[in-house]
Amino acid sequence: MANLRFQVVEEAFKKKPTEVITPVERPSEFFGKYVFNRAKMYKYLPASVYEKLIDVIDNGSTLDRSIADAVAAGMKQWAEENGVTHYTHWFQPLTEGTAEKHDAFIEHDGKGGMIEEFSGKLLVQQEPDASSFPNGGIRNTFEARGYSAWDPTSPVFIIDDTLCIPTIFISYTGEALDYKAPLLRALHAVNVAATEVCRYFDPAVNKVTCNLGWEQEYFLVDEGLYSARPDLMLTGRTLMGHDSAKNQQMDDHYFGAIPDRVQAFMKDLEIQALELSIPCKTRHNEVAPNQFEIAPIYEETNLAVDHNMLLMSLMKRVARKHGFRVLLHEKPFAGINGSGKHNNWSLSTDTGVLLHAPGKNAEDNLRFVTFIVETLMGVYRHNGLLKASIMSATNAHRLGANEAPPAIISSFLGKQLTELLDHIEKNDKEDLFDMAGKQKMAMDIPEIPELLIDNTDRNRTSPFAFTGNRFEFRAVGSEANCASAMIALNTAVAEALTDFKKRVDTLIAAGKEKRNAIIETIREDIKTCKPIRFDGNGYSDEWVEEAKRRGLDCETSCPIIFDNYLSEGSVKMFESMNVMNSKELEARNEVKWETYTKKIQIEARVMGDLSMNHIIPVATHYQSQLAKNVQNMRQIFPVEKAEQLTARNLKIIEEIAERTQAIETGVEELVNARKVANKIESEREKAIAYHDTVAPKMEKIRYQIDKLELIVADELWTLPKYREMLFIR
Ligand code: ADP
Ligand code: MG
């Protein structure tokens, strides 16, 4: 019987790039073609409605329900001109990805016919029958159902024949059941807190926007090879597979030439992304073979998150058109770099980025230092929570391994900024601040050298690095919804800024001059948050010891890391910033633990099945071939000669016997461990049991399988090998 593996490998080798139809227009012309953006709002809405809607979007004023009908009518007209027949409320439940339920525009016309209808009511609110979305017990079936509500700050867009309306998803009692609702609350909190602090420096500031520029890493695998790997199909990663003799040692893939088939995929993806207003800018190969990255220009965070969610689903569809599957899993292949999604984060006012070192006058520099230090304060106080916000069963494979950010959150500032903070910390002679006036301040906050702006990427091991005009949160996983990290980070910074303002105001009320009050408070905070600053090698063992001494969160078990969401400090922070209440936090943690358990459970099942149905049969088949050979040799040659000639085969026969036996025992133990864990009631304890007792057993089985892959005849091995999946174009 022909081995499917050889067939798919051969086909993959022969594949040619899929042709991409390039639009005749330039990107600037087809950008946003399928988005109801401002230009289209202007064109399709009455002037008064347009103005009210823009006011809602720009200034967060409340939506006047009376304009909803007019907005819906304009959207519908535009959509129909583009062949749209359906609409959907598009939302981000606590699973990965997005959810949508499509409804046709048609309604009965009361005269036995149909009319196309789309009213303001349908635009603004829907009740998706979504009882099977994870909700951690908030929305029990006997309770009222959840509903989705239009988010006017993220424009509607068209996918195929459907008008997609970005929405939040909440329960009737107001608890968030998604990522977007708490994200919007966190962005509001940071806007309020940062605006207040900005006004110390410039009373004209009205709004602070949070920016996010994500860098999406991913792997591509030929579709045929993918379909011959049940583990990839069902779990998103390879549960087994020996290293390829050549992988990333040569670093020859990074920034190398992009293969033709991949190039065609990227081109197609970018065109479609631009049509959806996703401002894609950068593409390149990544460190690992078959690993790539796509990054847009940064945007307002809510929009950037939506665009990332949209891009991930677009990638999956476009990849299939090109005979690929896109792997968003953080660690699809052991021993090879995993995929992350750097979240470049900054705050800005209408006048400029707050984390950009201006280097011109002392006042601006003081503002810059304030925002740097208070960001560090937020990250320091909630370093455990920030780790929890990026943690998942899949990202756990990446963190702490010797490649990606370590499983301890710390911040790299670079030499100049470190020196600057050290300088402020040490110059604490009172007389420096008693005298007001710029010159004195200029002495205290020295000129910030322009060089700082080029302070990029010097420490690749840092999970939260300052890179000139932003912080780069690098620990975020490739598959994750960026909102999770952005909720935690922005809330933490909002809390730090609020607290900062309170203390500065107290000093001012006690008679301190404003600038001196600010500097004194900053100085105190520089000292407090010092443990979070680390410019050394984040991969080293010494750092783990050092971080423990500093009191940073060093936990590595994913289910226990989730506890950070329920710590006293976290609950207080989320509640005081009006982002989430304890009920929401508890419910969400239930979902996190349950999701963790399910992921490992599925992997364990697939591991068991593949062991019994692929690996053991193939290995014993080869063993029989060898046994037959030994018998034949004994018939042909005299005893002693035969012994000598078959020694190697006998050894392999024995090794196969031992390894298959170990696999069988391993699978049995795996099943038993699952049975025990499944009986546990508490989601938290169950997840811990899966982490402690189930997951490690898979590693032991994998070890045996990978050894078998090396000795079993290549022609018999049914699963595509690493060298085939990773190097085929
Ligand atoms: P790299 O980190 O590889 O040097 P780039 O310079 O291409 O990457 O930038 C990565 C991302 O950071 C892009 O999405 C870019 O738009 C974004 N970015 C740049 N400046 C800022 C900023 N001030 N705030 C947020 N994101 C930013
Ligand atoms: Mg980067």
What does it look like?
There is one protein chain. The chain is of the alpha+beta class and 729 residues long. The protein has three domains: 31-178, Ubiquitin-like (UB roll) (Roll); 187-241 and 250-580, Glutamine synthetase/guanido kinase, catalytic domain (Creatine Kinase, Chain A, domain 2, 2-Layer Sandwich); 596-725, Four Helix Bundle (Hemerythrin (Met), subunit A). The protein contains 25 helices and 18 strands. The strands form three sheets. Strands 9, 10, 11, 12, 13, 14, 15, 16, 17 and 18 form a ten-stranded mixed β-sheet that branches. Strands 1, 2, 5, 6, 7 and 8 form a six-stranded mixed β-sheet that branches. It has a two-stranded antiparallel sheet with strand order 3-4. Residues 429-454 have low confidence and may be disordered. Magnesium ion is lined by residues 215, 342, 472. Residues 85-174 form the GS beta-grasp domain. It holds the Pfam family GSIII_N.
Number of helices: 25
Taking Cα atoms only, what radius of gyration do you get, to the nearest Å?
29 Å
CATH topology of the largest domain: Creatine Kinase, Chain A, domain 2
What is the total number of structural domains? 3
CATH superfamily of the largest domain: Glutamine synthetase/guanido kinase, catalytic domain
> What structural category arises from helix and sheet content?
alpha+beta
Beta-strand content estimate: 5-15%
Low-confidence stretches: 429-454
Return the CATH class of the largest domain: Alpha Beta
Terminal-residue CA separation: 27 Å
Report the average pLDDT across residues.
89
Protein name: Glutamine synthetase type III
Family: Belongs to the glutamine synthetase family.
Pfam families: Gln-synt_C, Gln-synt_C-ter, GSIII_N
InterPro entries: Gln-synt_C, Gln_synt_N, Gln_synth/guanido_kin_cat_dom, Gln_synth_cat_dom, Gln_synth_gly_rich_site, GS_Type-3, GSIII_N
